[in-house]
């Protein structure tokens, strides 16, 4: 299946599919943030715009959507280069453990190898499967503790 995977930019026609997958992701233990439909819609609208700071990709097999990935782009002063943030990677349950995630990550590295020097992501401590998956792809813990200030 994975060798026939198509990875493409999200389109306006993907709205309902994206919102459903995003809800499933944010309702799971994979995140520490609860699902917020307003935020999901804003993210979708930004993704279909001409934004240079984000990119949402649809993962499909024979026109059947299997998942999505949401990227954001920043600058890493420690690498003096663009930084790719893998904000979300969601694979639908029937497609999990079939090579889809690995195929996507291989594609991601090839796509951005000459455009950035680092890919960053976050994994909750409780998401053991995701941690093992990324460790198997040579990702390692950064040693930093995440901190943030949220404006409301």
Q: For the largest beta sheet, what order do the strands appear in spatially?
A: 1-2-3-4-5
What is Rg? 15 Å
Largest sheet: 5 strands, mixed
Distance between the termini: 43 Å
Mean pLDDT: 94
The percentage helix is 25-40%
Number of DSSP strand runs? 5
By CATH's scheme, which homologous superfamily applies?
Gcn5-related N-acetyltransferase (GNAT)
SS content category: alpha+beta
Number of helices: 4
Report the portion of residues in β strands: 25-35%
Q: From N to C, what is the helix and strand string? A: EHHEEEHEH
Shape summary? globular
Annotated CATH architecture? 3-Layer(aba) Sandwich
Count of the domains: 1
Low-confidence stretches: none
Summarize the structure in words.
- This protein is α+β, with helices and mostly antiparallel strands.
- The chain has one domain: Gcn5-related N-acetyltransferase (GNAT) (Aminopeptidase, 3-Layer(aba) Sandwich).
- The chain is 30% helix and 27% strand.
- The chain is built from 4 helices and 5 strands, in the order E-H-H-E-E-E-H-E-H.
- It has a 5-stranded mixed beta sheet with strand order 1-2-3-4-5, with helices on both faces.
- 18% of the residues are buried.
- The model has no long low-confidence stretch (mean pLDDT 94).
What would a concise description of this structure say?
The chain is of the alpha+beta class and 152 residues long.
Q: What are the key terms here?
A:
4 helices; 152 residues; 30% helix; Aminopeptidase; alpha+beta; 5-stranded mixed β-sheet
Task: Please outline the helices and strands.
Elements: E1 5-9, H1 15-26, H2 37-47, E2 54-61, E3 64-76, E4 81-91, H3 100-112, E5 118-121, H4 128-136
Parallel strand pairs: 4-5
Antiparallel strand pairs: 1-2, 2-3, 3-4
